[in-house]
Structures are given as C-alpha cells and as structure tokens.
Design goal:
heterotrimer; A mainly alpha (334); B mainly alpha (300); C alpha+beta (531); B: 300 residues; mainly alpha; MetI-like fold; 13 helices; C: 531 residues; alpha+beta; D-Maltodextrin-Binding Protein, domain 2; Dipeptide-binding Protein, domain 3; seven-stranded mixed β-sheet; six-stranded mixed β-sheet; 17 helices; 21 strands; transmembrane (chain B)
C-alpha cells in the first residue's frame, strides 16, 4: 500500500510541473501588460518601463519561469502584482469560500443523487425510474449560469426570500477562524450568522449541484443494478432479509465504489469550475479570483493559483483511488 | 464509466447470437428506435436542424435589424418572444442562433475528436513510452481546470467565435483520447488484429484500417454527448464576453447581454437560456440512447 | 433512518421559512444599534491600495479621499479650490514660487502633529519611484528627472511650505487638490514600510479601521477632525461585483448607497419610494476615435466628417437610458473654456454619402471598431453602442466589424494603434481643459505603445496652442486659446464625440446631503442618515 501511494505521489510531480509550465506560458502569451494594468491608462511610457523592470518582466521567459518555480519549491506562492498581497494569504481567504460551496453542493448532489439512483434501481422501469433518469438528463443539459440567473430572478427579485450575492449580509458579524463560514458560526455559537451563511449558500449551492447530482444519480442506478444481480444479494433475498436492509447495508455498500470515483472527480471539477457560478452570485472564491487575475494580467496569481487548484484536484483523485482500492477487496495494489 | 467496445459481443437481449457487424448494427438501430428518450432526443435534433436550415423562412424579423426606440418590448403578437436591448426580435435571433450553435457543436467536437482520437489511438496502439508521454500530457490537461484553460486560451488567441470553438475543442481532447485509448487497447489483442500483424501489415494500416473502425462505437457516443458539452462551454465563454462578437446571435452572448435588464425585461435572459437547454438536452437524450443501444452491457 | 431524513428536511424547511419572515427586519438592525449611524456603500470592485499616491483606480481613491487631506480641497460643486491643510497661499508673478501657510492645529490619526516637514517628506517620497503614478503624470516626471516641473519643496517655517517650479503651471493649485496628493503620516510610512498601503494614516474626516480584501473596508469617524466632523459614525465600503446584484442588495436594504447602476435599473429605483437616484455632475467624455495613423479611409478628413454625420446621436444617447447628454466637444460643458458656439455635425445620411463619394468611397469600405466589455462611468453600455453605430454606418455602406475585448486587452490594442476606430473615454482629474485636450489630442501623446491620443491626431497648430496655454497664467487668455483649439478639432474631426454622462448613484431615501463631486470623489463628512 505504502509503495503504491509513494509511486502515485511521484507520478504527480511531472504532471504538476507540466501544469505550471502550461499556466506560465498561457498567461504570458495573453496580450497586454501587467504594468499597464497596474498603473492604468494615465501612466507615462517611462513609468511603464520602470515598473516592468522593477517587476522583472523584461527578463527572458526562462529566467522568469525559473524564478517562479524556485519560489514554489520554497513554498512561496509569490505576491499578487495587483494587490501586493501575498498569494498565500489571499488563498486562505478565497479557498475556503470555494471549498465550502463545493462541499455544500456535493452534499446536495450526493444525498439527492444517491437516493434517486437507489430508488430508480430498486424500482427499475417504474415511473420513478423513468422520470428521475430523464430529469437527471435535464440536469446535465442546463447552462448553470442561466439557472443561477433564473433563480436570482425568482427567489431574489420576485419573492425576495433569498440573498442574491455574497457569503454574508453586511452588518452580520462573524468572527472568522477557518473562513468556512458555516463552521465558524457553529464554533462561535453565532446562530444568526449560521442562518445567514446557510441562506447565502443555497442558490449557488443548488446551481453548482445540478450536474454532479445528475451524474451521481445515473451512476448509482447502474452500479446498484449490477450489484443486485450478484449471487450474494440473491442469497440474502432468499434468506428473507428485510428489503431495506439488503438495499442499504449490502447492495449500496458495494455499489458505492464506482459512485465514489465520480464523487471525487466531480468535487475536483467543482473547485476550478465554479468561475461562472461565483461570478453570478458574487461569491468571493478562488475561481473568480483567477478569472479576474487573467483579466488583470496578474501573472503570479494566475500561475500559483492554477497550480494550487491542480494540486488539490490530483490529490483528491489520488485519495479517491486509494479509498477505492482500500474499500474494494477484489482489487490488489502492488 | 469507461465505455467498452463491442465487437464480437454476445447479445443477450432478443436471444440473438450474432458475430457479424451488419446484423449487430441492425440490432443496435432496433434498440435505439425502441427507446422513447432517444426518439425524443432525435426529434429535438431534427427540429433544430430544420430550424437552422430554414431559418430565413421561420424567423419573423431580420435578426440583426435594430429598433432602438422599441427596445425591451415584452412578448407580444408582433414579437412573440419580445425584443432585446437594441429592439431586435428575440425569436428571430434564437432561430438564427441555431445555425451558430450547430456550427459550434460540430466544429468544437470535430477538433476534440480528430486530436483526441489520434492521440488516444497512437498511445493505445504503440504503448510503452509513446503511451507514457501522451497520457502524462493528457493528465496535465485534465488537472488544469477546464474552464480556466478555455478562458486562458481565448485570452491568448483573442476573443471571437472561432477561437472560442478552438478553445472548447481543445478542452474536450482528453475525454476522447482516454476513451479511444482504452478501446484500442482491448481491440488490439483480438485475434484478427494479431493475424493482421502476423502477416506483416504496416502499423498505420492496421491502426487506421482495422483497429479504429472496430472502436467506433464509443467514439460516436462521445461525439454525440460532446456536442451538448461543447455548446454549454461555448455559451459559458460567450457569457463571460469571450465568445461570439456582436451582433452575432449566439445564445450565450444574448443571455449575457440581457443580464443587466433581468429585473426590467427577464424574457431577454430567459428564452436564449431555454434554447441552449433544449439543444443540449436533445443531444444528451439521443447520445444516451445511442450508448445504450451500442453497448447493451451498460443498460440492464 | 427514514425519520432522520424527515427531521433534516424539517430543519431545512424551518430555516427557509424563518428567513422569509425575517427578510424585512434585517435591513434595519444596523441603524438602530445603539444609535450608531453606519453607511454601507456598495461598489463593483475593491480598492487596490490605500496609498493614494500609488494608485490611479477610482475605487482606491474613493476610500483614501475619506482618510487623507490635501493642501487644498475642491469645493463641493466644482473644481475651484478651498483651504484644507493650507489656509492661504500666494504665487510669485513669474508663476514659479508658491508659498503655502499651513494649519497648526492638525494631528494625524496616529497622534503625531502635522507640520511643514511632513509636507516636504511626502513630496520627496513621491519622487523616489515610478510607482507614484499620478505625481509623474501630472508633473511630467521621467526616469532621469523624477521631480518633473517641481524643482524643490522646502519648509520655510514650522507651518510654511515653499514649492518652486521650473516652469509656470496654470492648473498647479487644482492639481494639488487631487486626492492622490493627500498628505500621509511620515511616522506611519516608516513604521509599516511595504505594508503601508494597507495601514493608511492621514488627517482626514475618517480613520481607517479594517480591510477584508475583496469584501469590505471599514472606516470610523475622526472625532478630532479639523474641518466639519462627520455626522455618521462608520462607513463600510462593500464589494458586490455585479451591478444587478448590487442593486438587489440595495432593494433588500442591506446597503445604503451604491454606484455603478445599470441604466436599466434607474426606472425601477425611481418608482420605489424607499430609493432615490443621485446623479453625479458630468466631468467626462466618451468618444469614438478614428485612427489617422494607418492610412486608408480614416486619414481622410471628409470620411471622418461623414462618419460624424452618419451617426444618429439621439438614438445612440437613448441607449444611455437618460444618464448621458450628447457631446459636441472633447471637453464637458461644465468646464470653463467650453466652446458652445460649435455646431455639432447634424445627422444627415445623404450628406454623409455625398462626402464619402467626394472622398472616393461611394461604395463604402470595411473597417474595425474596437470596444470593451466592462461598463465604465463615461460609457455604461459600450457593447450596445458599438452595435448601434455599426448598424448606422451600414446605411452609408461602411461595413463595421466589432471586436469586443476585456479592458486591459482593449487598452493595449488601442495604445498600439491596432484599431481603425475605437471607443474610449476620459474622466477629468483636476477640472482643467488641458487635462482633456492635451492628454487626449496633442501630438505629444500620440506615441504608439503608450498613446493617450488614440486617434493619432497630430496637428501642429493644435500642439502650438495647447503648449502656449499650459504656461499662460491668465485664465481669460487661456480660455481664448482653448476656444480656438476646439474649433480646429471640430473641423478635423479626429473623433466622434459621443456623450458626457452623469453617472447615477442609487441610495435609500434616508441618505441626505450626499453631494456627488464631478471628479468622482467626495468626502463623506457632510452627508447624514435620517432616522
């Protein structure tokens, strides 16, 4: 097991280096100039040139990349050239916002998706099966930015029952510890903030949950069907065990393995893929952060943040793989 | 969730044992036509194709003609879906937008398919270090957040519809490559390929003449489903202002432009979104049915 | 198992229901809390740095204008100046030596006394690096001469400062009133070093309290302010990037005032008794520049005039939904020196066609128009305006291809002169015509790569007059010169001047005495919140 994990970890290194090269090259190829972006349209040519020198933008690309990689290896993500703030510090603010939203969306997706998948499998070919599987296709067909806007129009504009943007209402005080607002408000016993943060999570959470929910539902259904054909389930049935026990304790447990892979993959995708959702709901997360950095030509932010997101993504996948192998007695690792 | 290839598969349903590809194709078609959802999908796709083909006849107005004094009109008998921020007829713009969406879907998926199939086939067929290099490259692309990759690519190439299609196409490459690779891997070891090799067939001929044709099923399924994804991704890029340039009636751009007026004229946002949804749904329903039909093992 | 799910569902439903019941009350709690008055200001982007000398973005300057004072400040309505840190001043007849008498009763927020030495310290600091953008830009600094036209700044007494210029500079006093030249506490600068930008210390009506990046900045009132002490206790600047979402927050009552209103939402706000629209007086211009540097049709004066005639400004301005007035000159009418005798090119398709035919373009031509995606105060809907103009020019056989890009790409494109036609605009800094005409239309600023003059309009006649006006100290004579320049520019038509906007703010009706300043930045010490 340890050997397997080590070799997988080693394989991540070239991938992450590749990601860093790709990110570096892409952002440097974008036309436009960070110096201009910082100084604005009112700077003179001399000022621009001076700032470019100061930022090291006139160095050869290889030198600039080497400097970036050198800092990363020392654990230093660099400083934003726009805000002058350390990127590590900024990510401590933004990553929890995105992760909290992704976890919230994943919980919705798993609860509803697994439940729908199980029922659909148990009552195969029933109306529930047909409807839920069709609806799940609706889920993967929806443009989520459109869904977000429509929800805002219905729940914020028309009925005014849900907040349209942000993580917390201005004026609601919350002492942050982890920057996960739900967790922080529970830790500090701040129920006003808990409710407020929860309400702010609802719409973006649902918007983000639609696609994974649909995929999980379909995956659960098909792997449940496969498991329920197995001999041991037939045996359990024959022994006259209660149906709910068979379904939840035996079948679901074994059917959950492929579902786990999907969950891991989707969770990773949510982290970097929330750009649209975050921008519609003004969610101060990491997707928006990189997107704005691309627009502002903030090279260090783009490079470091994409690297961090990619690292999280591959680690989440690695962990799901390991869990998969750990949970499934049939698979051997060497 | 990899899709397995299907040559020489024993078809359980209908108790037909078949090893010939023609009857297998008939069997698949039969299954496809029996599935209600794929029929619905097919109907939606046909309607969209007809709309695109006869757009000038179906549209009630010129999609680009403006009438600034008549902007933000609610749906009426004159403008059945209302007018947009420049007084253009939304229905007519959506009708003409069908052409653009079909174009985006086909071109973007075409790019993903050509590049992805080539990379996947080469990696799977030659194996060893070729496989290692190609697959590490694919891993890098997979680890790079896809929407950010598309955004960055468009930012580099310049924001317009052509570049958005290229970006969406590139982002879709890994999916194809992985599917094709695993399909090729399993076909490669079958007897007739080994026979072809034994008689000294050239690699290129074996790969493109024998291996790939026998891996077509998953490629077709992925291409159908990929069209939906490509439309969604391209609409997302347009929504961020990184896609179609005005006054192109691209649905994502229409939605994005109407966004400022959502309190005032929600129809400007609502209808283009519905159009995207229907389009993508059509291809997803059909693609789903296609997968079940071509690979009976996946569906009970 | 079933029961547990049911319970969870119940909790969720209960939470949603209780939220509905609450939505009306949540807006009021902060006004009533112990009688403390808090103003929540909603805006689209966060400040970049709270050191005004190093930034040019409005979002940074808007906040620092509350924290710092300048030697002189603008009066409430326009860009005339009034005493602030300096109580009186005089200038020698040659316009070279300015002497300022300073207040002797001012303390920085960190408790240190404000003296003439502090002014000298600030001026010297501004000449140490190219990062002090506005200093370099207003006073003409370059890498070899970081001081620019300011030769030296000396403390000639505890509360007296003398500034010596190398050449006369007519708008000097107006320039000193710009927020970037706010005087910072030298102690704080030394103490915080590189982190000074997030620990600002000035003498202004509000004291910096907290900054949560991309979320909010909190200021509290300065009880010991030497001017009028603020009526509100606290200001929170909150970032809500999307204009529509920000307006919804205002409707829900979670913010008190906002800038960057979608023009489409103005009618909604006006129909709501709880809300009001406040229009900022105009000191800007939006325009379409025609690149004269590329050869081809744009270098022909007749073509440029024809394009001016082919554009129906009434319809174009309608897209501004009431926040803009048609422009005929590069400078806004609120500025002195505005030439009101100029007759704008009237909308006349036939005449435009005739001119194009005369120029040899009867069959029209293909051309690009570059625009940008994010609205700016002088141009609330750039994408729509581009499409409208493209449609209008089709009438005279000019086929326009629109390229919309993000702001940074757009700036890079137009400064490099890659466009045929491009949108841009300008908000005045100090209320001087020079700040529009020289920056935007002088040949000095038509350098490819860093152009302010993106029409690449290189008239020697205009250049000579503008240069003469810069060193002329008599305002009547300067007015004459600027009137003349506007005539020449009108005739040469390097631009289609589009509009001068009055950027709207929306506020709760309870916000009173909020007087928006044309420069886009007003101190909050005079406004109040009615209970």
């Amino acid at each position: 097991m340890l050997k397997y994990i080590t070799s997988r970890l080693l394989m991540l290194i070239p991938v992450l280096i590749g990601v860093s090269i790709l990110a570096f090259s892409l952002i440097h190829l974008v036309p436009g100039d960070p110096a201009r972006s910082i100084l604005g349209e009112k700077a003179t040519a001399a000022q621009l040139e001076a700032l470019r020198n100061e930022l090291g933008l006139n160095d050869p690309y290889v030198v600039q990349y080497g400097r970036f990689l050198g800092h990363i290896l020392q654990g230093d993500l660099g400083k934003s050239i726009q805000s002058k703030e350390s990127i590590g510090v900024e990510l401590i603010q933004k990553l929890p916002a995105t992760i909290e939203l992704a976890i919230f969306a994943m919980v919705i997706a798993i609860v509803i998706g697994v439940l729908a998948g199980v029922i659909a499998a148990v009552k195969q070919y029933s109306w529930f099966d047909n409807i839920s599987m069709t609806v799940s296709l609706f889920g993967v067909s929806l443009p989520i930015f459109w869904l977000g806007l429509m929800m805002i129009w219905i729940f914020s504009v028309t009925f005014n029952i849900l907040p349209p943007s942000g993580r917390l209402t201005t004026g609601v005080e919350l002492n942050t510890i982890t920057n996960f607002y739900l967790l922080d408000s529970i830790l500090t016993g701040n129920w006003v903030a808990l409710k407020d943060a929860f309400l702010h999570l609802l719409m973006p959470g649902i918007a983000l949950a639609t696609i994974p929910m649909a995929i999980i539902a379909r995956m659960t259904r098909s792997s449940m069907l496969e498991v329920m054909r197995q001999d041991y389930i037939r045996t359990a049935n024959a022994k006259g065990l209660r149906k709910t026990i068979i379904i939840f304790q035996h079948a679901l447990k074994n059917a959950s393995l492929p579902v786990l892979t999907v969950v891991g993959l989707q969770f990773g995708l949510l982290l970097g893929g929330a750009v649209l959702t975050e921008s519609i709901f003004s969610w101060p997360g990491v997707g928006r952060y990189v997107y704005l950095a691309v627009l502002g030509r903030d090279y260090p932010v783009v490079q470091s943040t994409i690297l961090v997101i990619a690292a999280i993504f591959v680690f989440v996948n690695l962990i799901t793989d390991i869990l998969y192998k750990y949970l499934d007695p049939r698979i051997k690792y060497e | 969730m990899s899709i397995e290839p299907i040559p020489n598969v024993e078809v359980e349903q209908g108790k037909v044992k078949s090893t010939k590809s023609r009857s297998l194709g008939m069997e698949a078609l039969f299954r496809l036509l029996r599935s209600k959802t794929s029929i619905v999908g097919l109907i939606i796709i046909l309607i969209l194709m007809i709309t695109a083909l006869f757009a000038p006849l179906i549209a009630t107005h010129d999609p680009t003609v403006q009438s600034i004094p008549n902007r933000y009109q609610a749906p009426s008998s004159e403008h059945i879906l209302g007018t947009d921020e420049l007084g253009r007829d939304i229905f007519s713009r959506i009708v003409f937008g069908t052409r653009i969406s079909i174009q985006i879907g086909l071109i973007a998926v075409g790019i993903s398919m050509v590049v992805g199939v080539f990379l996947g086939a080469v990696a799977g067929y030659f194996g060893k270090w070729v496989d290692q290099i190609v697959m590490r490259f694919i891993d890098i692309m997979m680890a790079f957040p896809s929407i950010l990759l598309a955004i960055a690519l468009v930012a580099v190439l310049g924001p317009n519809l052509r570049n958005a299609m290229i970006a969406v196409g590139i982002v879709g490459v890994p999916q194809f490559a992985r599917i094709v690779r695993s399909a090729v891997l399993s076909v490669k070891e079958t007897e007739f390929i080994e026979a072809a090799r034994a008689i000294g067939g050239k690699h290129g001929r074996i790969l493109f003449g024998h291996v790939l044709p026998n891996s077509m099923a998953p490629i077709i399924v992925q291409a159908t489903l990929g069209i939906g994804t490509a439309i969604l991704d391209a609409a997302g890029l347009s929504f961020l202002g990184l896609g179609a340039q005005p006054p192109t009636p691209e649905w994502g751009a229409m939605l994005s432009d109407g966004r400022a007026a959502i309190q005032h004229a929600p129809w400007v946002v609502a209808f283009p979104g519905l159009a995207i949804f229907l389009f993508v749904l059509g291809f997803n329903l059909f693609g789903d049915g296609l997968r079940d039909a071509l690979d009976p093992k996946l569906k009970e | 198992m079933k029961k547990r799910y049911l319970f969870m569902l119940l909790i969720i439903v209960a939470m949603i229901l209780s939220a509905c019941g609450d939505s009306t009350s949540k807006s009021n709690n902060k006004d009533n809390g112990g009688g403390e008055k808090t103003l929540v200001f909603g805006r689209g982007a966060d400040s970049i740095q709270l050191d005004p000398s190093k930034v040019t973005d409005g979002e940074s300057i808007y906040v620092t204008n509350q924290i710092y004072d300048t030697l002189v400040r603008y009066v409430e309505e326009n860009t005339e100046v009034k005493p602030a840190l300096a109580t009186e001043w005089n200038v020698t007849d040659d316009g070279l030596v300015w002497t300022f008498q300073l207040r002797d009763d001012v303390k920085f927020h960190d408790g240190t006394d404000f003296t003439a030495e502090d002014v000298v310290y600030n001026f010297e600091r501004w000449t140490t690096s190219a990062e002090f953008t506005y200093y370099g830009y207003m006073f003409g600094a370059s890498e070899d001469d970081m001081g620019g036209i300011i030769e030296k700044v000396e403390a000639t007494g505890d509360y007296e400062v003398q500034i010596t210029l190398s050449e006369p500079n007519a708008p000097f006093l107006q320039t000193l009133a710009m927020p970037p030249f706010g005087i910072a506490s030298p102690d704080a600068i030394e103490e915080h070093g590189d982190n000074y930008f997030k620990n600002p210390v000035g003498t202004g009506p509000f004291v910096f309290k907290e900054w949560v990046p991309d979320d909010s900045i909190t200021l509290t009132k300065n009880e010991d302010y030497f001017g009028e002490v603020a009526k509100i206790d606290k200001v929170i600047f909150r970032v809500i990037p999307d204009n529509g979402a920000r307006f919804m927050e205002l409707q829900a009552g979670t913010i008190d005032i906002m800038e960057g209103l979608n023009p489409q939402d103005i009618a909604t706000a006006e129909g709501d008794d709880a809300l009001q629209i406040i229009r900022r007086p105009s000191m800007n211009v939006s325009y379409m520049a025609m690149n004269m540097d590329k050869g081809g049709p744009m270098s022909d004066k007749l073509v440029r005039q024809a394009i001016n005639m082919a554009i129906n400004k009434d319809e174009l301005i309608a897209l501004y939904e009431g926040v803009g007035k048609e422009a005929k000159n590069p400078i806004p009418p609120s500025l002195w020196g505005f030439n009101d005798d100029i007759e704008p090119y009237a909308y006349d398709v036939e005449k435009a066609k005739a001119l194009l035919a005369e120029a040899g373009y009867a069959d029209g031509f293909d051309i690009t128009l570059h625009t940008f995606s994010n609205p700016r105060p002088y141009m609330p809907q750039p994408k729509l305006a581009a499409q409208a103009i493209a449609e209008m020019l089709k009438e005279v056989n000019i086929n326009v291809e629109i390229t919309e890009s993000d702001w940074d790409t757009h700036l890079a494109t137009v400064e490099n002169g890659e466009h045929d036609m491009a949108f841009l605009g300008w908000t005045g800094d100090n209320g001087d015509p020079d700040n529009f005409l020289y920056v935007l239309l002088d040949k000095d600023n038509a350098t490819v790569g860093s152009a302010g003059n993106i029409a690449f309009y290189k008239s020697d006649e205009v250049h000579d007059i503008l240069k003469a006006a810069q060193v002329e100290m008599d305002q009547d004579k300067r007015t004459e010169l600027y009137l003349k320049v506007q005539e020449i520019i009108h005739e040469d038509a390097p631009w289609v001047p589009i509009a001068h906007t009055t950027p709207p703010l929306a506020a709760k009706s309870s916000v009173v005495d909020f007087v928006p300043h044309p420069t886009g930045s007003e101190p909050f010490n005079l406004l109040d919140i009615k209970k």
